[in-house]
Design goal:
Blueprint: H1 11-22, H2 28-45, E1 47-50, E2 54-56, E3 68-74, E4 77-85, H3 90-98, H4 109-121, E5 127-129, H5 142-145, E6 156-158, H6 161-167, H7 183-193
Parallel strand pairs: 3-5
Antiparallel strand pairs: 1-4, 2-6, 3-4
């Protein structure tokens, strides 16, 4: 086991790690409205949108020259937990404008189905990557919390914290991740300590 205290925590990573624990919105309607607000800023100013439970594992610099970059969640649904876009991106503008018809009964229509359809209609406006960009999807939750997978080629991992709290008993916090034998534990230790090995259980806090 690793002596995790011997590793230097990079404070920018610690901050990002803390942010991904900071918020867990459980109501789909509220989540979609929140996405709409964020989308308005991305549409105007561009930049990188990151969900509070999305963890970045590899540099995203190679995508910064694209007008817009998103990932796939399912075969016919876009992932919306990680978005890169230039200011006033035409794709983001179309996506944002689609929210004008939003209703509480729409579920993930505007946040995932609509951007996928737009990407097929306007492929010149957006770069669509596979699940290595921001996966896995919610149906693959066991890849994060029930087993260890190879995530070395992932640009980001969507931790799906609201589902983790619902279906898995282990609490994800700065103590539990030290000995958590799954992908979530390994990723967390890599961010905090640059080491995926489980920590010495004698180390507390």
């Amino acid at each position: 086991m690793a002596d995790c205290e011997a590793h230097t925590v990079r404070w920018v990573d610690y901050y990002l790690y803390s942010v991904y624990f900071a918020l867990c919105i459980v109501d789909t309607h509220v989540t979609t409205l929140f996405s709409n607000i964020c989308m308005s800023y991305v549409a105007e100013y561009g930049g990188i949108y990151v969900d509070t439970d999305q963890v970045i594992l590899n540099p995203l610099d190679k995508f910064r020259d694209n007008e817009c970059t998103i990932g796939l969640d399912y075969t016919t649904q876009a992932a919306n937990s990680l978005i890169l876009a230039k200011p006033k991106s035409p794709f983001i503008k179309l996506w944002y404008e689609s929210y004008k018809t939003f209703s509480k009964m729409d579920g993930n229509k505007h946040s995932q189905v609509t951007p996928y359809k737009l990407s097929k209609r306007h492929p010149e406006m957006v770069k669509v990557l596979d699940s290595t960009f921001s996966g896995p999807n919610a149906n693959q939750l066991s890849n994060i919390y029930a087993r260890n997978i190879d995530w070395s080629k992932q640009y980001g991992i969507h931790m799906h914290l609201k589902l983790q709290q619902r279906f898995y008993g282990d609490k994800l916090n700065l103590v539990s991740i030290k000995t958590m034998n799954n992908t979530a534990g390994a990723v967390s230790r890599w961010i905090l300590y640059q080491n995926t090995d489980m920590c010495d259980s004698r180390i507390q806090g």
